[in-house]
């Protein structure tokens, strides 16, 4: 229950202040998933998934996909997770490729 509350609290803060696409992260026991979502249209623009060991490379790949489509600024939605570990590696990989958030 607390996980859902944290996720909704984070997401509502993001939607209230920004009209940029949202980069959201989900992690399971073995994999990490990233999506760039356009909340105005309600569609997923790009997605990527990879094993947790390759989190930085997955972030770089998602950034490359978005930069090809002229999307250079997004809002980072960490969901219910702390900005630590694989979530941080994923975000740093996306920043290294030039995605701004």
Keywords:
alpha+beta; four-stranded mixed sheet; Ribosomal_uL18_bac-type; 5S rRNA binding; Ribosomal_uL18_bac/plant/anim; globular; ribosomal protein; RNA-binding; 101 residues; Nucleotidyltransferase, domain 5
Short recap of the structure:
This is Large ribosomal subunit protein uL18. With 101 residues, the chain is an alpha+beta fold.
Overall description:
With 101 residues, the chain is an alpha+beta fold. It has one domain (2-96): 2-Layer Sandwich (Nucleotidyltransferase, domain 5). It has 3 helices and 4 strands, in the order αβββαβα. The chain has helices spanning 2-17, 55-68, 86-96, and strands at 22-27, 31-38, 43-51, 75-77. A 4-stranded mixed β-sheet has the order 3-2-1-4. The longest helix has 16 residues, at 2-17. The termini are far apart.
Strand arrangement, largest sheet? 3-2-1-4
Helix vs. strand class: alpha+beta
Fraction of residues in H or I helices? 40-55%
Bulk shape: globular
The top-level CATH class is Alpha Beta
Helical segment count: 3
Query: How far is the N terminus from the C terminus?
Result: 28 Å
Number of folding domains? 1
Do you know the CATH architecture? 2-Layer Sandwich
What is the chain-wise order of helices and strands?
Answer: HEEEHEH
Number of strands: 4
Biggest sheet character: 4 strands, mixed
Mean of pLDDT:
94
Radius of gyration: 13 Å
CATH domain fold name: Nucleotidyltransferase, domain 5
User: Which assembly state applies to the chains in this document?
Assistant: single chain
- Measured by DSSP, the beta-strand proportion falls in 25-35%
* Low-pLDDT sequence parts: none
InterPro entries: Ribosomal_L18, Ribosomal_uL18_bac-type, Ribosomal_uL18_bac/plant/anim
GO biological process, one term: translation
Function: This is one of the proteins that bind and probably mediate the attachment of the 5S RNA into the large ribosomal subunit, where it forms part of the central protuberance.
Pfam families: Ribosomal_L18p (PF00861)
């Amino acid at each position: 229950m607390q996980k859902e509350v944290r996720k909704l609290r984070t997401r509502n803060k993001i939607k209230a202040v920004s009209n940029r696409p949202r980069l959201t992260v989900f992690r399971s026991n073995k994999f990490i998933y990233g999506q760039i979502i356009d909340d105005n249209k309600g569609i997923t623009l790009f997605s990527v998934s990879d094993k947790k060991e390759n989190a930085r490379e997955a972030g770089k790949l998602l950034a490359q996909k978005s930069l090809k489509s002229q999307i250079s600024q997004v809002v980072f939605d960490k969901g219910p997770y702390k900005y630590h570990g694989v979530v941080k590696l994923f975000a740093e990989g996306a920043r290294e490729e030039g995605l701004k958030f």
